Amino acid sequence: MQKRLVLNQQQIQIILKRFCHQLIENHDNFENTVLLGLQPRGIILLDRIVEELENISGKKVPAGYLDATFHRDDFRRRDFPLKANETKIDFLVEGKKVILVDDVLYKGRSVRAAMDAMIAFGRPQKVELMVLVDRKLTRDYPIMPDYFGIRVNTIDTQYVVVEWASQGQPEDAVWITEKEQK
Amino acid sequence: MSQLSSRHLLGIKDLTPADIQLILETAENFKEVINRPIKKVPSLRDITIANIFFENSTRTRLSFELAEKRLSADVVNFSSSNSSVKKGETLVDTVNNILSMKVDMVVMRHSSPGAPHFLARNVKANIVNAGDGTHEHPTQALLDAFSMREKLGDLQGKKIAIIGDILHSRVALSNIFCLQKLGAEVMVCGPITLLPKHIQSLGVKVELDVRKALAWCDVANVLRIQLERQQIKYFPSLREYSLYYGVNKKMLEELDREIVVMHPGPINRGVELASDVADSDHAIILQQVENGVAVRMAVLYLLAAVKA
């Protein structure tokens, strides 16, 4: 199986730092800003960003985990249903600037579902999207990231795999692989 | 696994331990949902559910209806007291007529044990048993298990005493199956006339002395005396039952540790449970009711997800 490394640990670290500085630039002191990581994999990126932001600015930014399983548009259309994950948001987003954080932006359907799920916590003033990898050619919905780590040209027969050292992988890395032929 | 092994919920007996785990874990997600400012998710917006109740119900029926509405399903309600059943229509005819109005799921309560199983064999919709006579009441057992887990953590090795009218109780049977599948030890306790013969063959302990049962258990699930199902006298009087089997505050205070007291409702205050217990911190009766909505949402959601 073909496997191509697109981001290594060092590059990911640089991107995380860049994300933090972009956020600080756009959101000043984060008084009215909250971060929401999308379950299941966006929360790992979110945790890293929150940690990095705290290192840089000395501030703890309000953050939560958002699960959009019950808002997905493919319920009863998939072969196997997705298992729901924990939603952990101990604040309201009413009037807040919300930054949705996910690892890979693929078809845009998860983000659409996530925005739907988010509305249950209030009407945000503004919503931005931050992703590590933007698969720019495969979108089903008109959704674009405000912040992206890397933009890759991939097709539907490929996977983008994000590995995190904190999840037991050898190191942080982003790979593009081919789906196995059936 | 993220899918149930069956497209109906007829009884706990048919569920695998993995099914029960999946329902309880999904219910945790729904409990978070129903505590949001907006308590509704769109999952079942293309599903229509008929609630068919041939027997009286307050909690279960409201709880199912709320669960359905919070999942955005369309809901129709039916109760036998003001329907054509009184004119002699059969069960299958009644349900098929309802289904021909494009209903996808049926939640049914019926006084005959096995009625939902019969329906599952004869109609196309997903069937959820909301209580069939003295047989099973699966969603009650699931919400009881959910409430116990919330209070005590994993139920493996925990001791649960079911106290009261075991003979006429569908809650007792479903509780026994459910708790055993989750690894708990179960005891039944009540006057000998209200314990089914051969109940030991289900692998439960049997105790006639309620004080001993309370001293043994981590959780006491106290059941109602179902006078409406008792054709003959099983004990001399309610007063005498209450004297020997009613759980009161003094009995709990005599124990060397705190136990959890549950009751599936409706309570006959002063008969099986004294008011000072029902309203105390020991009791999680109202939490059970809250959890009922989350558990029923999980059941409906997971059944809808099963491919036919």
Features:
heterodimer, A: 182 residues, alpha/beta, Rossmann fold, five-stranded parallel sheet, three-stranded antiparallel sheet, B: 308 residues, 2 domains, four-stranded parallel sheet, 9 strands, globular, uracil phosphoribosyltransferase activity (chain A)
Distance between the termini of chain A: 13 Å
Order of strands across the biggest sheet of chain A? Answer: 3-2-4-5-6
The CATH architecture assignment of the largest domain in chain B turns out to be 3-Layer(aba) Sandwich
- The total count of strands of chain A amounts to 8
Estimate the mean pLDDT confidence of chain A: 92
Number of structural domains of chain B: 2
The CATH first-level class of chain A comes to: Alpha Beta
Number of domains of chain A: 1
Question: Number of helical runs of chain B?
Answer: 11
Cα-atom radius of gyration of chain B? 19 Å
CATH homologous superfamily placement of the largest domain in chain B: Aspartate/ornithine carbamoyltransferase
CATH level 1 name of the largest domain in chain B: Alpha Beta
> Which geometry of chain B do the CA atoms define?
globular
Number of strands of chain B: 9
| Distance between the ends of chain B | 17 Å
Enumerate the strands of the largest sheet of chain B in spatial order, edge to edge or round the barrel.
7-6-5-8-9
Provide the low-confidence segments of chain B as ranges: none
- CATH T-level fold name of chain A: Rossmann fold
Mean pLDDT of chain B: 92
What can be said about the biggest beta sheet of chain A? 5 strands, parallel
